Every structure is written in C-alpha cells, then in structure tokens.
Amino acid sequence: PPASPWMGGLWEAAVKSFKNHLAKITFHRSLTFEEMSTFLARVEAVLNSRPLYPATNDPENDVDFLSPGHFLIGAPLLAAPEVDLAGTPENHLSRWQLVTRASQEFWSRWSREYLNTLIQRKKWNTPRPPLKIGQLVFIAKENTKPLDWP
C-alpha cells in the first residue's frame, strides 16, 4: 500500500536525518517549551528551504530552484541575517542567542549532509563528461547562513 511506512524510503530517510541531528544538538541543552518551539520552527524553515529541483531548464539565466517552501507559501523561504555565534562559549549566551546558536548548528550539520546526498555517486571507472558552461552546480561555502544555499 502506498501509505505504508516502508513505502516512503525517501522521506523516511529525511525524518531519520532530522531526528539524528536534533538529538545531537539538543542532547546537552535544556530548552524551555517556548525555546524548543522556536528552535523547531527555525529547523522547519531550514528543512523546507532545501533545493529539490532547478526552477527552469535554463541555468545560464536563472539559477533559482524549487524547494518545499515554494509549495507551502509560493515563494522561497528567507531569514534575517544574524550574528554567527559558533565561536562564543555557551555560558556567555542569552537564552535567545542559545536558540539561535542551536539553529545555526543544525543548519551547519544538516546542510553539509544534505549537499553530500546530492552528489551522484558512480563507480570510479565509469567515464563522466566534464562540466559544461551553463550547467547548474552547487558551490559549497564554509560559512553560509541558514536558508542561504550555496
């Protein structure tokens, strides 16, 4: 049956990835209900901003992509710029900054993992054509902000 849990391998893998990163990030933190709700809303925005498919077949003129956010609100999800809190000790952070840092950690971990899943892995002895001008590619940057895909 199509609605059975074992039939949705792709989205079940995404749920597993989410739970794994959520557990790693929140394990040593004690968040209140409101802080956890805020954190989960920010994580939801990260997950719904992921690229699914190029928006057009013309990557030379349009480098936009479709994301789940397009289907939810009809436009890409955006986030306000924030200060990077990765180097600040947690005992120096306010509660809001703690939630912000947790969401930045989630973005950092999850985006690295998600970009690795987009790489097509083929056997090393299969010849691959070189990249062509106008082909859509991701260029990974170290310090990208949440919802800002490279």
Automatic annotation (TrEMBL):
Gene Ontology MF, one: nucleic acid binding
Top-level taxon: Eukaryota
The DUF5641 domain, residue ranges: 94-150
Protein's name in the database: Deoxycytidine triphosphate deaminase
Naturally occurring in which organism (per UniProt): Lygus hesperus (Western plant bug)
Lineage: Eukaryota, Metazoa, Ecdysozoa, Arthropoda, Hexapoda
